[in-house]
Amino acid sequence: MRLRTIAILAVLILASPAAPASATPYPAEEIQVLLDRMAGAVRAKDKTQFLAALDDADHDFVARQTAWFEGMSLLPVKDFVLELELLQAPEFTRQRDRDKYKVPVMVAAVEARFRLDGYDPRPAILDHVFTFVYRTDRWLVATDSGLEDLGIITDHSLWEFGAIELKKSEHFLFIYHPAQAAFADELVAAAEASLAAVSQAWKPNWNMQIPVFVPSNQTEVTKMIGDIFDVSYFVAFASASLDRETESGWELVGNRVTINPSRFLAGSQATRQDIFSHELVHIATRGASGPFVPTFVEEGIAQISERRSLNVLNRRIRSGKFDRRLPEDFEFLTGNASDIFNSYQEAFSAMSFMKQTFGIDKLDAFYQALGKPRIEPGTSRYHTNLALTQTLGISLVDFESRWANFAASSAR
Questions:
Q1: Tens place of pLDDT for every residue, the chain, 412 residues?
Q2: Nearest of 356, 257, 251 to residue 2 by alpha carbon
Q3: Which of helix, strand or coil describes residue 299?
Q4: Which residues contact residue 11 at a Cβ distance below 8 angstroms, ignoring those fewer than 6 apart?
Q5: Which of 182, 258, 312, 405 has a 20 to 30 A CA-CA distance from 217?
Q6: Cβ–Cβ < 8 Å for 186, 225
Q7: Phi/psi of residue 189, each to 5°?
Q8: pTM to 2 decimals?
Q9: Which of 337, 147, 109, 326 has the alpha carbon at shortest distance from 229?
Q10: CA 5, CA 266: separation in Å to the nearest integer?
Q11: Closest residue by Cα to residue 139 from 163, 112, 103
């Protein structure tokens, strides 16, 4: 989600004219003081001080922020800070904002950093877009939806949408609304049982302490994941934030699993276990991932942990509809449900072929080599070809051809 926000902001920075000079002094330092007070209130669980930082004109916003604060107070939050982000994303105040509020106003990105104690080795990140207004003698937060018309969306948390309950197990922290309490024990059992299957796809060590979000409906899922594709096709999501303030240049932090309740809860316990295994492989590999890893590799390696057949792909092959090429990234998100599922099947088939032919150690070595480049010239296809050549001694063209032959012969 952070990657999406940064990309959109970069376009707007280049395209938007400079904002007219404000009649009041530049407010960045005063606003950061306000954010420091809000962060201190979260750390101290001081609801009165937190709400005192909000403009009370937007009752829905105040209600959501109240729910957000109450939810944060239940979680094992450590090291919570709020930072005004003006270097990567200068302010976005428009004339429409000045006309609406009729007081000094500033619209800007704010980054929340915090750890869930016992689960986050490094702080997770939530990106907010706050509209700040100056009332009488102080700055207040008026809303977090000031740029939604431009597609720049604040990161939303499950606890904004209502009360939450927590359930801990050896490796997981489940966060859900009271309405999902009846499923909590089943979900914990499925998640814990799923861990063993991760080793079928990924051998290196990884952090096995994971928060899991259980929303009430797809509306909540969409707000949490972002309205960038139709979430109704998907059962669960593994998410993370991009931290650019690391020694390596950047790192993915704040690993979370979010389930889509209408799809996930309809499955059997065995199916739920497979889904958890799939999402946990995504999280296990995340420390080795990079910007050039194509979706067919990401999704293919994750499915190795599942008990999955290739019935849809095999039917397409037998009917002559197999195009003998690896699926492109966009094919996992666009098209009808059958086409999207077929892309997943092709990815599973390709990475299963790699594991069967070269072994799991080579499979993992390939993924690590492919994920290693961070800021490098070249396309994803170029780096995939390079990683294949370095670790498996085969070009991407040859791999694609050998996989297509394998898939076609297996379908007979």
A1: 333 333 322 333 233 333 444 444 468 999 999 999 999 999 999 999 999 999 999 999 999 999 999 999 999 999 999 999 987 777 899 999 999 999 999 999 999 999 999 999 999 999 999 999 999 899 999 999 999 988 888 999 999 999 999 999 999 999 999 999 999 999 999 999 999 999 999 999 999 999 999 999 989 999 998 777 778 888 999 999 888 877 767 788 999 999 998 889 888 999 999 999 999 999 999 999 999 999 999 999 999 999 888 988 999 999 999 999 999 999 998 888 889 999 999 999 999 999 999 999 999 999 999 999 988 999 999 999 999 999 999 999 999 999 999 999 998 7
A2: 251
A3: helix
A4: none
A5: 312
A6: no
A7: -60, -45
A8: 0.87
A9: 337
A10: 32
A11: 103
| Cβ(271)–Cβ(140) below 8 Å | no
**Token pair 């998100």 in the structure block, residue:** 333
SS (H, E, C) 144-171: CCCCHHHCCCCCCCHHHHCCCEEEECCC
Q: How many CB atoms lie within 10 A of CB 49?
A: 14
Amino acid identity at 327: P
User: Residue 86 and residue 6: Cα distance in Å, rounded?
Assistant: 12
Exposed / middle / buried, residue 294 (Cβ in 10 Å: 0-12, 13-18, 19+): buried
CA-wise closest residue to 281 among 374, 345, 200, 184: 200
Record the tokens describing residue 2, joined without a space. Answer: 């952070």
